[in-house]
Design goal:
- This protein has about 90 residues and is an alpha+beta fold.
- About 20% of the residues lie in helices and about 35% in strands.
- The chain contains 2 helices and 6 strands; from the N terminus they run E-H-E-H-E-E-E-E.
- Strands 1-2-6-3 form a 4-stranded antiparallel sheet, with helices on both faces. A two-stranded antiparallel sheet has the order 4-5.
- About 10% of the residues are buried.
Length: about 90
């Protein structure tokens, strides 16, 4: 079962801020969270059910540092369409 702690962060990029004007929030989570679990988190903790949830799995970048190869962590990115009038005060800009 997913919990509020599975939401790592809200992504604030140029694209996500333009989407936020139309009611879409971009959420970064661990790679094990599913769409239904994220919908349940929004319903339990924020008091509304999202209208639509789209997901994207993003693999970590491969980086080199002093001739050692490493990889950043992989994560899932969710595009969550929130109902009109619903607002998350603690997460909005």
């Amino acid at each position: 079962m997913a919990d509020i702690t599975d939401i790592k962060t809200m992504l604030y990029t140029e694209k996500s801020l333009s989407l936020q004007e139309s009611g879409v929030m971009v959420v970064q989570t661990s790679s094990k969270v599913t769409k239904n679990q994220l919908k349940q988190v929004f319903k339990d903790y924020f008091g509304f059910t999202p209208l639509r949830v789209n997901s994207l799995k993003q693999d970590g970048k491969v980086k080199k540092f002093k001739n050692r190869v490493g990889q950043r962590n992989s994560f899932k990115k969710f595009y969550v369409k929130i109902p009109e009038g619903a607002k998350i005060d603690s997460l909005s800009v």
